Structure formats: C-alpha cells, structure tokens
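[09:14] KT: can someone run the structure on this one? pasting the chain below
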Amino acid sequence: MQITSKFTIAVHIITAIDYFKDSEKVTSSFLAGSVGANPVIVRNVMGKLKESGIIEISQGKRGISLAKALDEITFYDVYQAVDCVGAEGLFHFHENPNIKCPVGRNIHLAMDEKLRRVQDAMEDELRHITIADVASDIKREVGSAD
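[09:31] RB: done, structure tokens below
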C-alpha cells in the first residue's frame, strides 16, 4: 500500500505557488526546481490541479497562481485531484486466493470491510488538514532559520 508521490509533489507545488507569489514569477520550470522533479512530472501534476480548480495557469506575466485560498484546499482535495490511489483503493488485494482453501475462499469477506474502514478513516483525516497548515509550518521554519 502506498500513495503515489504525486500527492506530496502536488502539496509542494501548491505551497510553493503561495510562498513565492509576491517575489517570483512562478512557472512550471521554477516549480520543478523547487520540487526536484522532472518538469514533465510537475506539469502533469499541475494539469490535474488545474482541472480540479485548485490552481490557475496563465502564459502571461502572472504565471501560475492559486484559484482558492490555502485554507480552502484540504489534503483530501489534493488526494482526489491527483489520483493518488487506483480504483481498487488503498489496498490492492492479491489476485488469486485459492478458493479450495478455507482461508483463501473467505479472505475477501473477512477483510474487505475492514480495509474500507481504514481507507475511510484516512480520507476523513485528510479532510481536516489544509494546505494552510503546511504553509504555516514552512513559514515558521523559514523564520526560525533566519
């Protein structure tokens, strides 16, 4: 089980857009440098954030900006926007449990609901954390390093 790095890249992008909005022209190349990732990956993640109405991309002087306030963007919004988890959910079940085995025959029945509850709990927690929380922590750290 693992959420793809697209999630942390997206949070990084959104936070950097806010942090540098008044001091830099924020472009995909600039963000790729901040993230330390291939610009193509950054542009793909940005495309998903744009489709979800989280960021705006302008070719002009403005560059990339946020379409929502940081406190209106939750981790869950980002998680949904960048498709961090496949259709099967967080937990990918092994493909061929042996139906002749009593455990193999019943493992889905015994686990599916429990795994769904775990995913629901995680997603509920994601709804309570905003990008503003991350930005605040970064600004505090930057301030304490000066």
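[09:33] KT: thanks! The radius of gyration is 19 Å.
[09:34] RB: yep, looked fine to me
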